[in-house]
Amino acid sequence: MTRDAARLRARGSTSSGGFLRLVTHTDPVALVGITLSITLSIALDLSNAASGVESLLAGLMGITISLLVDSLARAERRFHLRTLLEGPPWLAQTTTELAGAIRDATEQHAGTRVAVEAQRRYEQFRLEAEQLAYGRIVRRGDEDEDLAGATRTCLHRLDGLTNVMPRVSGELSWWRSEIGRRYWEANVEALQRGVQVTRVFVYANLTEELSALVEKQRAAGARVGLLPLGVVSPQLHVNLTLWDLSSCWEARMTAHGEIGENQFSVNRTDVARLTRVFDLCASAATFQD
What we know:
There is one protein chain. This protein is elongated. The chain has an 8-stranded mixed sheet, with helices on both faces. It has 10 helices and 8 strands. It has 3 domains: 86 residues, no CATH class; 46 residues; 150 residues, Endonuclease, Chain A. By secondary structure, the chain is of the alpha+beta class.
C-alpha cells in the first residue's frame, strides 16, 4: 500500500468515525425528519410533481424544520440538566467528573472487563441513588452506622422489636456481637438523656440467657416486653427500630437467620408500616410495669 493510499484510507476512516459519532449524538426525530425530507425532495423531482427548484426548496424546508426540532429538544435537555444540577455546590462538579470517568472507562477500554465493570458499578450507583431519593439507605448486614448513629441522635422515643429464634450459633448471638454491643451502648446513652426506650422480644424459648438480657435492659431503664412465638402473625416477625416516629431501621434476614442487609429510612410509608408492626406486637406482649 502506497503512502497516499494509506492517507486516503485513514482519512476515510476518520470521516466514517465522525459520521457515526454525528449520527449517535443526533436526535432520532431529526434523523427521521432529514431522511423524509430528502426522500420527499427526490420523489417530487423524479415524479415531475414539482420543478427541480421546488423539490429542492421542499427538501430544504423539511430539513430546516427537522434541525429546528432537534435544536429545541437539545435546549430542553440542557435546561433539564441545569435544573437537576441546581443544588449543593458539589453536585455539578462531581456529576460531570463521574460521567467523564465512566465514558473514558467504557470508550478507552471497550471490550474489556474494565468497561463491563464500569457499567455494572454505574448501574449499582443508579439503584442506590434511587433508594436515597425515596429516603432510604440500604447497607450490608455488618454495617451499623445508621442503627447506632440514629440512636445517638434520638430525642424522645425509641421503639424496638427483636425476634429471637433458635439458631446453631445461639439465640442471642447478635446482642453479643460487636454491632450489638455498640447498639446497646447507644441505648444506654439515650436512656441517660431521658429517651423512652421500649423493646419487645419475640421468642421461641424463654431461656436463661434471654431472661438475663431482658433483666439487664430493664435494669438500665428500658421498658421491655415478651411475646411468645405464635401469638402474632409470622408477617410481623420483623427486626426493627423506630426513632421519634420519624425514622426507622429494618433488618433483612438470610435463610440462616443472619442479617444480610439493613435499611434505614425516613420514608413516611416505611415508618408507618413498621410503626404498625411494632404497635401490634407491643399490644400483644407482656410488660413488667
